[in-house]
Amino acid sequence: MSDRDEAGMKVTGAAVENNLAATSRSSALALIDEGNALEEQGRTAEAMARYDAAVEADPRCARAHLNRGNVLFAGAQIDDARSAYQLAIACDPHYAAAHFNLGNLNCRAGERERALHDYQLAVDIKPDFADAFVAMGNVLDALGRGSEAIESYERALAINPDYAEVHFNLGVLAANEGRQEQAAESLLRAIEIRPDYAQAHYSLGKMLSGLTRLDAAEASLRRALSIAPESEATLYDLVLVLLLRSKVPEAVQLLTRNLERLPTWPIKRAFASCISRTKFVARDPQARTALTVAISEPWGMPYELCRPALSLIMLEPRIASGVRVVNERWPTRVPKAALFTAEVLATLAADPLLQAMLDAAPVSSSIEFERFLTAARHALLESAAGQHPPDPADIAALPFYAALTRQCFINEYIFDCDVSERAAANACRTELIALLDANAVVPPLLLLAVAAYFPLYTLPEAGRLLATNQPRPVDEVLRQQVREPLEEHALRARVERMTSITHGVSARVRDQYEQNPYPRWVKLPITEPALHFNGELRRTLPLARFTPLHDDRHPEVLIAGCGTGSQSILTAQRFCGVHVLAIDLSLSSICYALRKTQELGITNIAYAHADIMKLDDMTRTFDVIEAVGVLHHLADPFVGWRTLLSRLRPGGFMHLGFYSQVARRHVVKAREFIATRGYASTPDDIRRFRRDLASGEAGIELESLTRTPDFYSTSECRDLVFHVQEHRVTLDQIGSFLSDSGLHFIGFELDPSVLHQYRTRFNSDPTATNLHNWARFEADNPDTFLAMYRFWIQKPADH
Question: 749 by DSSP, 3-state: which?
């Protein structure tokens, strides 16, 4: 064979190889096209089979590896997807799309620096790769490198000026940096390019709301909701703007229409917040149904939902007629025959909203309705004392009577009771004890009548009642008045005695709360998904300035003065990962709190019997300390504050609540009235004080106390105006203490409408932390801090 022949043979062999390679590439590309078509139809598994076949046909086909990586990435098979992208790059190092997709994968995996490297390679290969510049900007923004992110976005816009998402991103960055005009310009440009850009409309509305341009904010948010009606965030923020614009009925209707479609926690809480400000003047079955659930679950603090519930209940003619009759004849008790026909009793027994309200909290805000319930209790007593056998209408009304009895226990028997009524109730109590002693059948109405005037656990050997066979509504009363108090008594031995109790003020305060644990709550609102401390504080005070906890994964929290546990439970649920120590002077209060904590299945709270004034003796310190509504009951509130500060770690936070001297002016006058009249802090005298106040004997100014929720239970009324020790402070005093102690004021927890009014007036204080301004605001709006000053402060870190 000649050299030429050999040469010819070699050329012929290369041609064959080239033909085979071309055929393989062609086959691979055809398989890729088939896979793409299948993927568009949602037939992912079949598409993947085509891509696998394409790789088998041409192992050097970068497109095939890329497409395999895309399918694996979409299926969250991160490691396999990464390998596929790396193979694509190995086959073609200048494949910009492969570097870009690998960057997206690394970004999702949280490896942002690697993602930046990948995106940079993509734009080095393809300088007009706008999407890669956008992705790079997103990562830089997430890394806190805002100026570099803006530069990357601007390079994307230089390539594609109509890139709506980039204008949106620039708008969000500008808003976060306080450049509001530039933010608005960018967001409006994004909307101009994409009129249906829901997120841009939403962000513009949210930003305008922060600038108090509420009319424009409402328009933007309404547009966003019309484009994306499934957006929970848009609905929530639109409702907030409507509240700020005093459009409460519109907010309620909007939420009611959307509750079934968006039954999420924020929407439920928004509904509770809106409806609590509503007084219904016409029937609204849809709102009534939603409000019944809102109280039962509950979606807000039940006492806050009482006013709208009563307004709806009073739209029932039979109930409204009964309330009117009772108040026309008050204080004379209306005989049962004149108050309750069988039809009226059936109406009361079949009203789920009424029963939900009676079960959940003291019925507050209406002395007129309280009188109706007082008359209803008297009618129950009349039925129990005089009918053998009972009237069938009374038996049918057991659900109402039982709910009324539970209400009496919840409000600690605050209802007015005259001498003859008390004598009749005592007679029923004596009869009930005799039946128990004789092991005889206990009529349900008799048991309910006694329970409506006396807590059943105070009967001799009350546990015997649990053996009686009672209908379900009555059994619920037994659970509330016998089982649960017995459980609390059994828990006393389990409570750690951490300190002794100081003689004097501390001992007197302890004695008050031993007699009247405060408050006797039943239900707490459902809670948001918990955030770690830094995130939750930011959610609560979005504009506040503070130094985050260095490590907020498992902060140690002290609740100083936990009472009956509502605050400790809410804190344990509010902050993710916290360990809570809750202390109080009153064992009775702690046992109530412990029972409710166990009932809710909460395991991250420890309770202890302790005196704040003795905490100097302990060595333990905390990241967060809460003392809301506590320090103003000490001998010296500021000495107590300093004691708690000694237990706070450097860089730690305190949540505090003090009575306002300005807001408590009516309470001061009520305490003067009490001293003048000589009322004691006994249940009978508290009832007498309330009766005199409601009749107008104390004057119109003090009569306003009947509109406060605290007026409607014995422990809360005692805490309101009969407390053994009360201090009130001013914002100047708080400011001086903060300054002298080197503490940083973070902000008040307030209703958004109040903050909006403040920021409108003091627009140079966007964080709303200038206490001198707040003092001026309070002087003009003296009921601003009617409950108390509730605020957060931070202790400086060690240097």
Answer: coil
For 392, residues 6+ apart whose C-beta sits below 8 A from its C-beta are none
SS3 sequence of 198-216: HHHHHHHHHHHHHCCCHHH
Q: How far apart are CA 40 and CA 38, in angstroms?
A: 5
We report the CATH number of the domain holding residue 642 as 3.40.50.150
Q: Which residue has the tokens 């407390």?
A: 723
Please count the structural domains in the chain: 4
Task: Out of 681, 700, 721, pick the residue that ends a domain.
Answer: 721
**463 and 545 part of one domain:** no
pLDDT computed for residue 13 by the predictor: 45
| C-alpha to C-alpha distance for 586 and 594, rounded to whole angstroms | 12
Instruction: State residue 387's pLDDT score.
Output: 61
Radius of gyration of the chain from Cα atoms? 34
The reply to whether 265 falls in a domain is no
Tokens, residue 487: 């459980």
CB atoms within 10 A of CB 551: 11
d(CA 399, CA 404): 9
Length of the chain as a residue count = 799
Confidence of residue 19 (pLDDT cuts 50, 70, 90): low
Sheet-wide strand order for 648-658: 496-497, 605-609, 579-584, 556-560, 622-628, 648-658, 789-794, 744-748
For residue 719, the Cα-to-chain-centroid distance in whole angstroms is 25
In sequence order, the 6+-apart residues with CB closer than 8 A to the CB of 551 are none
CB contact at 8 A, 365 and 307: yes
pLDDT tier for residue 487 given thresholds of 50, 70 and 90: very high
What amino acid occupies position 6? Answer: E
Cα of 370 vs its chain's centroid, Å: 29
**Would the pLDDT of 7 be above 50?**
no
**For residues 135 and 108, what is the distance between their CA atoms, to the nearest angstrom?**
12
Give the rounded percent of residues in the chain with a pLDDT score beyond 90. Answer: 87
Structural domain that includes position 717: 665-721
Dihedral of the alpha carbons of 228, 231, 234, 235, in degrees to the nearest 10: 110
Residues 6+ apart with CB under 8 A from 554: 577, 578, 579
Q: Looking at residue 16, what is its pLDDT? A: 42
3-state secondary structure of 151: helix
pTM attached to this predicted model: 0.85
pLDDT in tens, 162-213: 999 999 999 999 988 878 889 999 999 999 999 999 999 999 999 998 888 9
Model confidence over 426-471: pLDDT tens digits? 999 999 999 999 999 999 999 999 999 999 999 999 999 999 999 9
The backbone region for 524, taken as left when phi is positive above 0, alpha when psi lies in -120 to 50, beta otherwise, is: beta
All residues at 6 or more sequence positions from 670 whose CB lies less than 8 Å from its CB, including other chains? 693, 698, 702, 705, 720, 721
d(CA 581, CA 562): 9
pLDDT tens track for 741-798: 999 999 999 999 999 999 999 989 989 999 999 999 999 999 999 999 999 999 999 7
What b/e string do you get for 136-157 counting C-beta neighbours within 10 Å, with b at 16 or more?
A: bbbbbbeeeeeebbbebbebbb
* Domain final position from 696, 721, 746: 721
Residue 608 lies in a domain: yes
User: 49-58, 344-353, 505-514, 787-796: which range is least confident on average?
Assistant: 49-58
* Nearest to 664, CA basis, from 712, 617, 626, 702: 702
Same domain, 487 and 628: no
CATH of the domain at 133: 1.25.40.10
Q: In this structure, are 219 and 364 located in the same domain?
A: no
- pLDDT grade for 390, boundaries at 50, 70 and 90: confident
d(CA 675, CA 666): 14
* pLDDT tens, position by position, 404-430: 999 999 999 999 999 999 999 999 999
What is the structure's pLDDT at 384? Answer: 94
